[in-house]
User: What shape does this take?
Amino acid sequence: MNAIVLFGDVIRSRRNATASTTWLRTLTAELTGVWPAEAQLAPFEFTQGDELQGLLAPGADPLLAVLHASLHPDRNPMRWVIVAGEIDPGTGPATQRTGPAFLRARDRLAEASKRGDNLLISSGDPRTDSLLDRLAPLLAELLGDLTKRQVAIGRLLVIEGLRQSEVADRLHVSRATVSVAADRAHIRSITRLASALRELFVAGQEATR
Assistant: This one.
C-alpha cells in the first residue's frame, strides 16, 4: 500500500535528552487530531533516539506536522523528511512499521543531516523531486529564523488562521505591531512556499501512479 512517511529528528538532542523527550511528548500530543482519522494511518510515536515518526494516507498534508512543530512556543530545532511511497501492511504506531518508503525516509534523513538541510521531501517522481530538493529546505530556513515573538504571531496567523486584527486583540497589541512583526517574519512567504510545496508533492505523487 502507498502512504506518506514522516520522520522528525530533534537536532542535537544528546545535549539535553530530557528536554528533547519532553518536547516530543508535547509535539506528539499536538499532532494527535490534526488530520482526520482516516488520514492518519498510524499514531505518531518517537524512538529513544528522539526521532518522531508518523504515517499518513496519500493526499494528506504532511507539512502540517512541520508547521505545527515550527510554530509551537516550546519548539526544539528539528530536521524533517517527508517521503511518499510503498509501505508494508501492518498495524501499530509508525515506529513499528516498515517498507520501502520507511527505508527511503531513513536514507533521506541521513542525507539531510549531511547536507545541513532541515527539510527534504520526496514524492517519488524524479522531476518533481528535483524541484522539491531545492525548495523544501528554504521553508525550514524561514521557519527556523523566527524569534519567539514571531513564532507566537505566526502560530495564530498560520495554524489558527486568525486575521491580523484578531491576533492583535489576542495578544493585546496594536494591529500595526502585528503587521510589522508578520512582515519581518516573512509569514506571507512561509504560507506561499508551504502551499507551493504541497502542490508539488501532490503532483509528484500523481505522476507516479
